Amino acid sequence: SGAAAAAAAAAGGADEGAPSEGGGGSEAAAAAEAATAAAAPIALSVADIERVLGPPRFEPRRDVARRITKPGIALGLAATVFGGETLFVEVEQVAGKGAVQMTGNIKEVMQESVKAALTWIRANVAELGLAKTASEALLNTTDLHIHFPEGATPKDGPSAGVTITTALTSLLTGRLVRNDVAMTGEITLRGLVLPVGGIKEKVVAAHRAGVRTVLLPQANEKDLRELPQKVLDEMQFELVSDVREVIRAALVPADVTEAEAAGSASGDGSEPATDDGRQVPLSHPLPSVPTGVP
Questions:
Q1: Which residues make Cβ contacts (< 8 Å) with residue 47, sequence separation at least 6?
Q2: Full-prediction pTM beyond 0.90?
Q3: Is 89 helix (H, G, I), strand (E, B) or coil?
Q4: Which of 135, 159, 170, 264 is catalytic?
């Protein structure tokens, strides 16, 4: 009958869906288990990543800390057609007759920034704590060499003025520049800090290099609105209108010796201690600009 035929068909369908003697059920279970395992997250350690990709080519924060290990070196910021870049300024003095040598493929405007920085320092030797004999030596018996590394890259523009002044002051006073600070700004012969361009690119470059404090011209405060919120949240800014403010914020305290400060070169965020256990405040807090700029 029709009922018997339907029952037979149903039985046949059940037989077809049943596991075969060849182990089809176990294969399905194994496939399901493999799919579950593939969906589970895989944890990779730093060592695992280095085995696959090789060791890191750059360690920006440590590189900055290792390069600023003696007086006369400061970290500036530059804007290029490819974005922002960090810009080191190195100054050294040797016996001579007051000559100034500039190297590093710098163009005319940046050479003028060097001249303005030197004039300001010579006009303010007493305020900087330099003795009269030091002033005379600077003018008559000392040659200065100001170098901008990476000579294959042309450099120009006025925004390195504060960095050049800071590096020169660091060298002549024997005080290190903080290795957690970058800066940008043009200076005048009276020591005023003038606004510059490319603030967004420059701050992003500092952030990329692991530097979290940037000294900016006061008049550039409005440009902070252009920064990504993630960068704003992680940065600290010191807005300055006079180069004296830059020097106060950028130089390590006078009572910290070069040997004491050397411990900060690891760039791991920890503060070095002296032999008697005293902590060296290389990262003293600076007033910050509110990050929630409307």
A1: none
A2: no
A3: strand
A4: 159
